[in-house]
């Protein structure tokens, strides 16, 4: 079996498992505790996100022309780009590590709407700061 096919199958399996968790939560309704409901929903969403990215990115790469694909691959391996991403990740990740995990865990355990809204908001802030730091380090390097 090709390595690409194995990655595709694993991604499809992750999406299927995420959908199965959502279906379990939907069908069980009020029969399970809110903490289990939140945990299954969170894990299902994470599996769908990870698996979906693993399915969509190769499809997008296939739709590019060979020249565009080579340019993307070159940009991914370029030492300057790698250094920029590493510095930006370090700057943005360390300050927001706990800000990402605390609302996520609390929302999964308590199942309260406030924490469920706060968790994606903090994740968006984290990504915004990551992009800001990529811009900042691209100017420095």
Q: What general form does the structure show? A: flat
Structural class: mainly alpha
The SSE string, one letter per element, is HHHHH
Q: Tell me the distance between the termini.
A: 42 Å
Low-confidence region ranges: none
The profile of the biggest β sheet is:
none
> How many extended strands?
0
What count of helical segments does DSSP give? 5
Radius of gyration: 19 Å
What is the helix fraction of residues, given as a range?
over 70%
Mean pLDDT over the residues: 81
* Proportion of residues in β-strands: under 5%
What does this structure look like?
The protein has helices at about 5-30, 35-65, 65-75, 80-110, 115-140. The protein is about 90% helix and about 0% strand. The chain is flat. The mean pLDDT is about 80. It has 5 helices and no strands. Helix 1 (about 5-30) runs antiparallel to helix 2 (about 35-65) and helix 2 packs antiparallel against helix 4 (about 80-110). By secondary structure, the protein is mainly α.
Please outline the helices and strands.
Blueprint: H1 3-28, H2 34-63, H3 66-77, H4 79-110, H5 113-140
What distinguishing features does this structure have?
mainly alpha; 91% helix; 0% strand; 5 helices; 141 residues
Task: Briefly say what this structure is.
Helix content is 91%, strand content 0%. The protein is mainly alpha-helical.
């Amino acid at each position: 079996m090709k390595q690409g096919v194995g990655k595709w199958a694993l991604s499809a399996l992750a999406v299927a498992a995420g959908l199965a968790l959502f279906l379990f939560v939907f069908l069980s309704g009020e029969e399970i505790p809110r903490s289990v409901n939140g945990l299954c929903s969170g894990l299902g969403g994470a599996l769908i996100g990870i698996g979906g990215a693993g399915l969509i990115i190769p499809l997008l790469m296939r739709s590019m022309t060979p020249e565009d694909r080579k340019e993307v691959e070159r940009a991914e391996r370029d030492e300057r780009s790698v250094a920029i991403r590493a510095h930006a990740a370090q700057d943005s990740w360390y300050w927001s590590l706990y800000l990402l995990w605390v609302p996520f865990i609390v929302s999964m355990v308590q199942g309260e709407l406030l924490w469920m809204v706060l968790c994606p908001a903090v994740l968006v802030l984290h990504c915004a700061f990551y992009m800001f730091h990529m811009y900042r380090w691209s100017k420095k390097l």
